[in-house]
Each structure stands twice: as C-alpha cells, then as structure tokens.
Design brief:
There is one protein chain. This protein is an alpha/beta fold. It folds into 2 domains: about 35-250, NAD(P)-binding Rossmann-like Domain (Rossmann fold, 3-Layer(aba) Sandwich); about 270-345, 2-Layer Sandwich (TATA-Binding Protein), CATH 3.30.310. It is built from 13 helices and 14 strands. The longest helix is centred in the middle third of the chain and has 20 residues, at about 200-220. The protein is globular. The protein starts with 14 loop residues before the first helix and ends with a helix. The relative contact order is 0.12. The mean pLDDT is about 90.
C-alpha cells in the first residue's frame, strides 16, 4: 500500500521504514509506544541507541557508569571531541545527541553502575532490555532480572574483529546461563586491551541486536533469531549455533531452578578493573550526594581538580580520580583493587 507523505503525520518521518512489508503502520505505532532500557552506552550502546531512536522507539533509558575519553571516539559513534572536553558522562552526552536526532523520543539518561541493588528498578517498566555492556558480570545480572520479570533481552558482545549475539525470550528460549553457565574467570578471555576492537565489528553486532529489537517491539516474534550468531569480520567467517534445544535439556539454575544468584548479590563484585583502562571502579554508594565544591576545596592543595554537575576529576601522584555524586569512583593509574580502595579512602573518604 502506498504511503502518502504528510509532514503533519507523526509517521511521516518513518515513511521509508513503514513501507517495509515487515513493519507497516501497525508495527511503527507499536515501536512508538514501546519502552527500552539500554544497559551500557559505549561502543555497542551508542550504535544501538542511534538505530532505535532513529527508528522511533518511544522511550529509551540509557544507563552507563562511565565518562568519555578520546580513545572512545574510534568506535563510540554518538560522541565527539567536544564531549571529551566538556567532561560529560556517556549517558548524558548520548542523551543530548539523541534528542537532536529525534525530539519525539523520550530519552532518560542515568549515570550509574548497574548492580544487584538497582537492576530491577531500571528494567521493570520497559518492554525490552538491550545489552551494550562489556562484561559478563553485568550480563548475568541482566539475565537474572529478565528471567525473573519475564522481560525479553538481547545479548551482544564484540572483541577484536569477532562478534556474537543471541535473543533471549524468558520461558520460550534458553537463557544466558543455559548457554554459558558460568562467567569466564578474570584473565581467561581476551579484552579490548589485549585484542583491540574494530569499529565495524561493533557496528555489525549492534545492528544485529537492533534488528532483533525492532522485531520484538513491532510484534514480529516469528522472525526472531533462535541461534547464537558468531562471526569474524576480518576473516569473513559466519557461524550459527543451534541452541533452542538447550531449554529442555539443561538443568539451568536460573530459568529452571529460579535461583537468581547474581540478582540476589550472591555472585559478583562491587569493585572491578576496567577493560583496557589501567583503572579500577570503586562502586561505593552514599545516601547523600557528594558536595563537589566542598570536596574540590579540600583536594585543591593536593592536585589538579575540576568538576561539573555530573562528576569531579582529580589528578595527583600519577593517579586520576573520576568521582560521581553517589560516591562511585573510577581510579585510573592502577589495576590493583586493594591499592585503589586505599586511594579512595585517602582522597575521597570512607
């Protein structure tokens, strides 16, 4: 059916998408009424957010714990050099760009670390959870919350030139723990520091995730991917692993046993080294927000300090601190967790 152009029609900006037979007006209206939580807004997350906001997903909650550095610009497509200079957290910078792309979409940026204390609140009111993270700990946490709340979610990962993705529908498909029961031990898998990462590989994984998201949100469940997809853009290899049968064969502690060990806080850490950063995150949370002006005055005699409404940056003795209002901090210049905790107590406070 022909789609007549009408600038006053909210569907007009999506006319090329509406013309696609798998979408149509009904599918587009479902997209516009849908809600998504995007966990992570780095390489994968920026591509995902860009696709979904341009497609017209009505509400996108962008959750990320980090700030922007120059080396991010190679693959994190929503950011530029001005964002680095302005000391902006990724979630806030992404939201500003996304609102310029599509002002009809509601963007909710949340600058926080996703953990067992907040994951349910972040995803309980949405239709879909998207993985834009860079670590398995957060993915298992997402998986627990998704299974418990019966929310679909889409896993995606990339390192070097290799990517993988799968779509998870709780109760209908295997969950992540059915396929990968335990998180790989630290140091046992490549990281972006050891293997690097290609921007085009990121774009492919995120695009696969975005297509699956559009299918779910527009009601095209019969078109969903039922396999674990793995590819290498450098070697031009593509593999599909059939996993559907695992749902009935595996004695999964999560989706069969209803044991949500990551969500309960029994598994996981509140202090982590960050991929390729020579940095440690201290995920302490405070009931009252930090007073940055007061803190800056106290730290000024000890090193260089600058701050805005989103974070405080402090450099001293070869270490750089990025402190957020809730007390969380990223300490650059060490991969030693014990040393990072000592530095945190010394300069931020216990």
């Amino acid at each position: 059916m022909a789609f007549a152009s009408n600038p006053n029609d909210p569907l007009d900006r999506y006319s090329r998408q509406v013309r696609f037979p798998g979408m149509g007006e009904d599918g587009q209206r479902k997209l516009m009424a849908s809600r998504v939580t995007l966990c992570g807004c780095g390489a994968l997350g920026t591509v995902l957010a860009n696709h979904l906001v341009r497609a017209g997903v009505g509400f996108v909650r962008v959750v990320d714990r980090d700030f922007i550095e120059t080396h991010n610009l190679q693959r994190q497509i929503l950011f530029d050099e001005d964002d680095v200079a302005d000391n902006l957290p990724k979630a806030e910078a992404a939201a500003r760009k996304l609102r310029k792309i599509n002002s009809t979409v509601t963007i909710e940026p949340i600058v926080t670390d996703i953990d067992h204390t907040n994951i349910e609140a972040l995803v309980s009111d949405v239709d879909l959870i998207l993985d834009g993270t860079d670590n398995f700990e957060t993915r298992y946490l997402i998986n627990d919350a998704a299974v418990k709340l019966n929310k679909p979610w889409i896993f995606g990962g990339v390192i070097g030139s290799e990517g993988q993705t799968m779509t998870i529908l709780p109760g209908k498909s295997p969950c992540m723990r059915c396929v990968i029961e335990d998180s790989p031990p630290p140091g046992m898998t490549p990281t972006c520091e050891t293997a690097g990462v290609l921007g085009p590989a990121v774009a492919v994984v995120a695009s696969f995730e975005a297509v699956e998201a559009i299918k779910i949100l527009s009601g095209n469940f019969e078109k969903l991917n039922t396999k674990l997809i793995m590819f290498d853009v450098w070697d031009w290899s593509f593999r599909e692993l059939k996993i559907a049968a695992l749902k009935d064969k595996v004695d999964c502690p999560c989706c069969k046993g209803r044991k949500f060990e990551w969500l309960d806080g029994a598994l996981g850490s509140h202090t982590t080294t960050l991929c390729g950063r020579n940095a440690v995150q201290i995920a302490t949370r405070r009931h009252e927000p930090l007073n940055f002006p007061e803190m800056a005055t106290r730290l000024a005699p000890l090193g260089e300090v600058r701050h805005n409404a989103f974070m405080l940056r402090f450099a001293t003795e070869g270490h750089e601190f990025t402190v957020f209002p809730d007390g969380r901090a990223i300490i650059k210049g060490t991969n030693d967790i014990a040393k990072a905790r000592t530095l945190y107590s010394q300069f931020v406070g216990s």
